[in-house]
Amino acid sequence: MYFIDPEMVLESEIPLYAHIRSDGVKELLVEHIERCKYYFQKIYQDKNLEEVLERFCRQMDFENLPVAQKMVSSMFVQVVVFHDYGKLNPVFQRKKMKNTFFRESYDGLSNSRHSLLSAIIYLDYFWNEIENDRDKDKGMTETSLTKKDRKTLKRIALELSQVIARHHSDIESMDSYLCCLRSGEVETLLTNLHAAPLRGYKGLRWLNTDKLLRFTGNYRILKQKTTREQDMYSYFFYRLAYSVLVACDYYATTDFMNQVHKEYYGSMNELKKFTDAYNGSELIHSIRTYEKEKHPVFSGKIQDLTEMNDLRCEMFLEAEYKLKNFSDEVIYFLEAPTGGGKSNIAVNLSFHMMQGRKKLFYIYPFNTLVEQNRQTLMKLFPDEQLKNNIVVVNSLTPIRGMENKDENSEDYYEKALLDRQFLNYPFVLTTHVSFFKLLFGDKKEDLFGFLQLSSSVAVLDEIQSYRNSIWAEIIVLLEACAKLMGMKVIIMSATLPNLETLGSNECSVKYLLENSRNYFSHPVFKDRVEISYELLQQTVTLELIKQHVKSQFESPQGTEKKLLIEFIKKETAYEFYQMMHQADLQNVEIYCITGDDSSAEREKILKPIREKENINILLIATQVIEAGVDIDMDIGYKDISKLDSEEQFMGRINRSCKRSGKVYFFDLDPANRIYRDDYRIDSDLTLKSEEMQEILLEKTFNRYYRKVLEALQEDRNQSTNREGLQYFFKENVKLLDYPGVAKHMQLIEDEQWSMNIVLCRQLVLENGMHLDGWEIWNKYKKLLQNTELPYAEKQIKLSEVRSWLNYFIYRIKYNVNLAYQDQIGELYCLEDGEKYFNNGKLDRKRLETTGILFLD
Fold it and tell me: Bridge-partner residues for 531, per DSSP?
């Protein structure tokens, strides 16, 4: 790999420093660049970045592709070489590096910042290289660039220079960067660089104020000529460049400052052990036996099967066959009925896809499902070495290291923090929100791990839980990212909208179960749960529902039931929970689970529900119970909302198909308070409509989603206003407006009128561990105030304490009159939190009398 020699740009006789250690040792700038180059080469090889560059260049429609690709490759590689050349800034050298060679000031460099100067030096070098390719006398040759290619390359150099300019901060929009380049300070700097030498720098080669103003002024005109596909590739390409640069910079800096050398970059090295363990499991052995003895069952004969496990085997093998025969596709849809074994199918498919790939992501809608699936994988792969490869990444889980797992080692904390920041884990379990920050976030921490997407496999579960107003953007951008980065993506759910329709001709997906209707309509799945709409014909109250539920438990002994009821609002769920405690139910265990419960509290609630038999159980819940929660109930009641939510809820009833199941739907609280701006809560698309009632009975969800997608296309895809799809791609994506894209693609919109509080109390976890909220709060506060701990060690220990503190954190509506005992930033602490709980659940009435109201 060719790196430009620093002596091409810097004067070697002038000592330039990059960092100073606490022991006073200084690192030369050229030494820092050497370290960055070392890590760049490691990452470049480990993440197959040459292939990414080739895919990017092919998409840019160069007229002389081989020559242009060579230039793009050089510009990408040299970002890591040039990124800190701005540290020759005399103010930086004098103030930050205590370099006595630099005493004088320099017009245009009024502070110690260096990134913008680095970007200008980079831009000047490559614009000069591109312009020098002109060969007017000889005319076009095989080794020269066309005029069109030069313009495109100069634009790419400008966009890459922004990566350098922002590598110590959040990534901004190109408009913001162009304004900075056209500022008076930059004009002064360029003028001075031509008039007076800058110590340590060999000077500008080509750039001046007029040329810079002319090209940046034409930037929008140049971008109007690019296609949407090129815009999307560019959007992700510069995220990759940022991620790679920051990774190299962090690794190199840690290498010098802490003498911690990084050798592991998060790729899967244990794939064969994973596949051997999986294929050797009892479950897969039974599927392969079925394959030899009974498979395939022809489409028309599927209805003749009577055993659920036979149907599961058919879906497993059909999906596997489709994958093997359509291995060149990028995005695959897996739509299978609830109870059909989607998770196991996805594990099998993902291991097939991982052949020759680097990383595996499993993405779930909630942290509870992340933890539930982690436990499932731990059982599936009991080998400790394999368990250590599976890492949960979220705010609830303490940071852990991959390369060095010995906490007593001198470099443990530094390496563990780097592993977490840059996702150096081979098998990552995380949430939709975290994954979308990786794809679309504009904060620097969001972009750190983006390089890990290269040659990865991502399994996205329950995609219908995303905001449907951005479904079109999701599928189009996800496919572009996957194509550029060499990813494979599986999107799976029991109710899967045909997002390909929203992407028009810009995306294509492969359905792994092309005739999934054969399975959805099979009696084993279709008739697993009886549906009753009788309560929808009435004006219901909580009292009416209470009496209806009580009647279910009045059957004689020996007919015990597990009953689940879901409300839309937490407030209603808590009120009903207290009502049922006072309802004089005999021999009925009553539980309540909402979004307020921590993962440990939820597991404490769900464990006896899973394990106890021949006992009456009533579980009161909110929508957190819908997607993927592993419980098997006999009877269900649900307040209607979205049709796909109704199907998800029904997946908790008679899950095993070993007995009968029944669900009653009712209409109590308005769904639009919870599902704001969601097309699916229109009354014509809910169970208020007889057509939707029929669709749920017959499992013909394609009819339902056809109506939803038609509404989306009419309102957003074809709209030309600021909320429309066209505006988003032309203004945000095309112009590399990273903050604009981040805001548009948020899965959960910000709550401006909310606050986080800590309700301290005494908790006992399922494993017997005792947690004292006030003690944990003070430990957290003490850690934050500790200025002596090394940074990495402090961050690791804070993540550990935060994981405990999360058991006590709740989000409430903003209240200026809140009587709290302590505060850290925007986190407010109440020492005596126990008084706000009744029967282990929040007492909303008491909270309201003290001026606090929890969010729904």
Answer: 663
